[in-house]
Amino acid sequence: MQTKETIVCRCEDITLEEIKSLIDQGYRTIDEIKRVIRAGMGPCQGRTCRMLIAQELAKYYGIPVGEVLMPTFRPTVRPVKLGTFAGGE
Amino acid sequence: MQKSANVVIIGGGITGCATAYELAVRGVKDIVVIEKQYLSSGATGRCGAGVRQQWGTETNAILARDSVKRFEGMNEELEYDRDIEFKQGGYLMVSYTQNEWNQYKKNVAIQHSLGIPTKMITPQEAQEIVPHLNINGLIGATFCQSDGHANPFHVVDAYYKAASRLGVKFETYTSVTGITRENGKVTSVQTSKGDIAASIVINACGYAAGTICKMVGFELPLYPQRHQALVTEPVEPCQGPMVISLHHRLYCQQTPHGSFIMGVGDPNEPKDFNINSSWEFLEDVARQATTVLPLLKNLRVVRQWSGLYDMSPDANPILDEVPDAKGMWVAAGFSGHGFMVAPQTAVLLAQKILGQNCFMPIERFGLERFSGGELLLESAVV
C-alpha cells in the first residue's frame, strides 16, 4: 500500500505513513497518537480513523483489534452550533 | 522495570515531565517518571491551553511571567521536532461590574510592580482588539499582549523527548500502589510493575496528589473540582486574545489551529472526582459565550470534555516537602493554572531539591501557610 498517499484521518489529513511512524516511535494507543497528531479530533470525531489506527496498532503489537484501548467517546455526536445550545435558534 | 532510582516522579503531566527535564539537565542521573495512563492524560491534556501573567498574587504572577519567557524559546531550548504552538495574542480580561474592576486595578498594580506590561483599556479599545466583543455594560478591560496560548500535548511531548534524550525513563500505564518510609524518610515506591527504591519522590499528580500523600499518612489540603470545556470547528483567524469574563465565569480563545476552546466555571460544582461531560454545561457555556462574543453563535461544537482542577485553599500551588516523609516533595494545588506556570515551577523545585539558589523563595509556596501562616488568596481564577 502507498502509505504516503493513503489518508487515514480525512478531517485532519493524516496519512498512514504518519500513523505508522508514530507507532514505530513508541506511541502505544489511539489516545496518544490523537494528541500528538490530531487524528480523530476533527468534525467526524474519529469515526473513520479510529478503527483504522486500531488495526495498525493491533498488527504492530500482534494483538486482536478488540484489545486495543479505545479513546473516550465524547459528546457531541455530530457538530452543533453554539447558537442552538444557547436557545437562540 | 528497574529496581532503584535516584528520583521517582509520580505523574506524567506537565509538572512531572518538566521537573524530570529540569533535574536531568542539572546533571541528575537515573530519574523515572511513573504515569498511570499516558503522558498528559490527566489535567494537563484537559486544560484550556491558556498562558497568562495577569494574576492577582505576586507568587502566581512571577511564576507565570518567567514561564512566558521559557515558552517563547521552548521549541529551540528543547529541540522539539514539532511546534508547541505558542501564540502571543494576549489575554483580554473584561470587567462588567465595579467590584471586579476595583479588583482588576489592584491586580494590575501588582503586575506592574513585577514588570508585566498589562494595560488598562476602555470598552472601545477592547473592541478594537476583539471586534466581535459585546461592550454593552462593559466598564473596562485589562490587556497583556505577551499572554497567550500553547499546545499542552506538544509541550508535554517536547519535555518528554528532551528528558528522554538526557536518560530519563518514562513508565506509562503504571500505577503507584504504596510508598514506604523508614525513620521519617521515603525509601521506596510500590507500583503495578514492581517496587523502586528511591530517596527522592516527587508527587506531581495534580488532583490525585492527595491520594498519594495519604500513602505516607499525610492529609494534603487539596480538593478536586470538575471543569468542563469544549472545542469548535476551525475557522479563519478572527480572535487574537483569550477573552476572560469572570462575571460570566467564561474563558474563550481561538487556537492557532483555528478552533475555539472555551469553558465556564460552575459555582455549584461539588468537590468530587467526577469527569463526565454534562448536557447542562453545553447550554451554560453557549449562553455565556454568545452573550460576551455574539458572533460565535454560528460556530459548531465538535467535542466537549472535562478535567479536574487540583484546588488548594488559596488557589496558589503547594511546593513543599511532606512533614514526616523526608524526600517526598509535593508539586500540586495549581488550581487550574498549572500548565502555564509549569516551566518555572519545575525550575524552582529542581533548584530546591538540589540545594541550589532558588530564583524566588520557594517557602512562599510552603504548607505552613495553611496552619497559621499567611494565605496567598488568588482572586483571578475562572
Description:
The complex is a heterodimer of chains A (89) and B (382). By secondary structure, chain A is mainly α. Chain A is built from four helices and three strands, in the order ββαααβα. A two-stranded antiparallel sheet of chain A has the order 1-2. In chain A, strand 1 (7-9) and strand 2 form a beta hairpin. The longest helix of chain A is centred in the middle third of the chain and has 13 residues, at 49-61. Chain A is globular. Chain B is of the alpha/beta class and 382 residues long. Chain B has two domains: 7-46 and 153-222 and 314-370, FAD/NAD(P)-binding domain; 87-147 and 223-309, 2-Layer Sandwich (D-Amino Acid Oxidase, Chain A, domain 2), CATH 3.30.9.10. Chain B contains nine helices and 19 strands. Chain B has an eight-stranded mixed beta sheet with strand order 5-6-4-14-15-16-13-17, sandwiched between helices. A six-stranded mixed beta sheet of chain B has the order 8-2-1-12-19-18. In chain B, strands 9-10-11 form a three-stranded antiparallel beta sheet, with no helix packed on it. In chain B, strand 10 (185-191) and strand 11 form a beta hairpin. In chain B, helix 1 (14-25) runs parallel beside helix 6 (152-165) and helix 1 runs parallel beside helix 9 (338-353). The mean pLDDT of chain B is 97. Classes of the chains: A mainly alpha (89), B alpha/beta (382). Strand 3 (80-81) of chain A pairs antiparallel with strand 17 of chain B. Chain B: Pfam families: DAO (PF01266). Chain B: InterPro entries: FAD-dep_OxRdtase, FAD/NAD-bd_sf. Chain B: This is FAD-binding oxidoreductase. Chain B: Keywords: Oxidoreductase. Chain B: Residues 7-351 form the FAD dependent oxidoreductase domain.
